[in-house]
Amino acid sequence: MARLRVLLPLPLAGAYDYRVPAGWDVPPVGSFVVVPLSGRQLYGVVWDGEADPDLPERRLRDIAEVLPVPPMTASLRRFVEWVAAYTLSPPGAVLRMAMSSPSALEPPAQKAGWRLSAAGQRAARGEGRLTEARRRVLDAMEPGEVYGGAALAAEAGVSAGVVRGMADAGLLESALLPAGADFPRPDPAHPGPALGPEQRAAAAALREAAAARAFGVTLLTGVTGSGKTEVYLDAVAECLEQGRQALVLLPEIALSTQWLERFERRFGTPPALWHSELGSRLRRDTWRAVAEGRAPVLVGARSALFLPFPDLGLIIVDEEHETAFKQEEGVIYNARDMAVVRARLAGAACVLVSATPSLETLTNAETGRYAALHLPTRHGSAGLPDVAVIDQRRTPPERGRFLSPPLVEAVRETLAAGQQAMLFLNRRGYAPLTLCRSCGHRMRCPNCTAWLVEHRVRRTLQCHHCGHAEPIPESCPECAAEGSLTPLGPGVERVQEEAALLFPEARRLVMASDTIPGPAAAAEAARAIAAREVDLIIGTQIVAKGWHFPHLTLVGVVDADLGLAGGDLRAAERTVQLLHQVAGRAGRAEAPGRVLLQSWNPGHPVLEALVSGDLDSFMQAEAESRRPGHWPPFGRLAALIVSAEDEREADRAARDLGLTAPRAEGVEVLGPAPAPLALLRGRHRRRLLLKARRDVAVQPLLREWLSRAGVPAGVRVQVDVDPVSF
Ligand code: ADP
Ligand code: ZN
């Protein structure tokens, strides 16, 4: 009897062998199947390779079912294997990301819709009197066709109540909608905005790349507001004309309502979406629509890379420098890098987009591995904002305050001119540290190396790493002094409090992950700001991403030095990227924009780069500082995080691992040292860093190292290839 290999979505070493029951056709490689495993029924995928012919017949079980979904393509199977090998993860753990929920694999449930009844068909031929709204609905329908209620109302431009009323009146009868027929099809011929000359040139190059039907990577850069989105949407149109699927990755898809509106203006329909907040039914329908080629464009978070596109032609990674593309749990991978791999395996074009590309990507463009396109000016008449530093040493804020007089003055002027202002501080909550004035005790998380952050609105102290929360104590837990606990330093809530005192008239909006938790709140915030119902926006890093607020002319950065402290080699690069993005929110329409950076260290190269606007020179200097030590992107890096609940056990395991570290030409192992966040969720963490020259393949070294090391029970070793901080 025929045998085949089935990969299961579990962290197992490889595929398992199964038997095809007598009389069945052998399902093709890639088929989704149900198989038994130790008393359970599991979904899996028929994998490549030969089953072991020597395995005795009695050890083999039969596959139970072949599911009615298109088989997983060879290019996605290769991708699963590639990611597993690169990240040193079990292939099944990666497959799991490509499987979605089991229910997506079941035959789709059919949904109820409407079609014309006999009476409706007579009315459509003009018999009897009809209201204008009902007439429009009948005009929108073909006899015999089934329509979803909402889609029908939208098509006819009437309310859903009109459709229901017509059903009650017997003009429509219910019928089953063909499964999945209601996924939107973006229309590439739908007219988009007229592109400016620079945009046209870049769009033509991207169209050519998308039409080539071959792998290639292009870096699209351009100042904030230069219209990069419209340019790459043109490449999406080309991909659609080629009849292939396009995938757009955004770092904060759930908050990207403005982006979605633009997509809809460009293509006449919204795209299919993929992110963690999709409901389970939509998730299932979307997965299936992608697998069946019914979702021509999908916009998603990093996990969308693992969707089963049958013929992927284009991948766009917008804001490619964003650390949100890095998944830090489970299979640890960077979606930006894996997008390039996915595109290569699919024979697709890949476009990386950013106003402030990562050093990795810039280096790839410089060496010619990636093509590069640049938009040098803002779209329309807008110029770039004017950036200046406020030297806090010379004009410090008042005691206990955080906004210096020049910044307060600038906000006042802006508001008086009827324009909008934004205060940016990348810190949630009220105060990042709570200190006892009597004994000096600092409130820290019991589970993590982190201070507890006061959230005054919720009256709690919270850990931003493990979610621990406790009420703000009345007295110091150390010395019992009453009322001695004092908040130190600002978070956005505290800036908002100060703004309320300084600008009581201004209508203020705080934009942080606790006030803007999802798409609905983001859409409402965008609407209120566009409608000028808000004068002053106070926000964390969520205000930095992609927003286009035409009436916003002033951005004040409350603490431009934040993020530069600490030993992370990549801190300067990340700070420049973040602050440049925030600054880019100012002056995007006719009125010129202004950016003020409050700093205690105004001579810092990061601030000088932001003021001069010469980010290229800054990145060059960054590159030169990393080259001699073979730091990324001039060398390879992998972190091993050793963790245990017991601190001594973590130390011992890390030390033992260090003793068996690989010794090879061009390879160096640093540590063990306390990991960033040496205590996280109750586990003590130590880190070993393997640094290698670019020409060294680190995965075989790591694999061999880990196979040699005996890891005691209770100790976990996580491999992070290309760590974000180092
Ligand atoms: P970037 O992504 O480079 O920061 P955007 O693509 O967000 O820039 O464009 C900035 C603003 O200019 C957006 O509101 C966009 O709709 C508008 N815009 C860009 N290009 C055009 C165009 N060719 N015609 C009309 N509006 C445009
Ligand atoms: Zn914690």
Automatic annotation (TrEMBL):
SUPFAM superfamilies: P-loop containing nucleoside triphosphate hydrolases. It comes from the Bacteria. Binds 2 zinc ions per subunit. Zn(2+) 2 binds at residues 445, 448, 463, 466. It catalyses: Couples ATP hydrolysis with the unwinding of duplex DNA by translocating in the 3'-5' direction; ATP + H2O = ADP + phosphate + H(+). Component of the replication restart primosome. This is Replication restart protein PriA. GO terms for molecular function: 3'-5' DNA helicase activity; ATP binding; ATP hydrolysis activity; DNA binding; zinc ion binding. InterPro entries: DEAD/DEAH_box_helicase_dom, Helicase_ATP-bd, P-loop_NTPase, PriA, PriA_3primeBD, PriA_3primeBD_sf, PriA_C, PriA_CRR. Zn(2+) 1 binds at residues 436, 439, 476, 479. Initiates the restart of stalled replication forks, which reloads the replicative helicase on sites other than the origin of replication. Recognizes and binds to abandoned replication forks and remodels them to uncover a helicase loading site. Promotes assembly of the primosome at these replication forks. GO terms for biological process: DNA recombination; DNA replication initiation; DNA replication, synthesis of primer; double-strand break repair. Belongs to the helicase family. PriA subfamily. The keyword Transmembrane helix does not apply. It holds the Pfam family DEAD. Residues 209-375 form the Helicase ATP-binding domain. Its cofactor is Zn(2+). Its EC number is 5.6.2.4. GO terms for cellular component: primosome complex. The keyword Transferase does not apply. Keywords: ATP-binding, DNA replication, DNA-binding, Helicase, Hydrolase, Isomerase, Metal-binding, Nucleotide-binding, Primosome, Zinc.
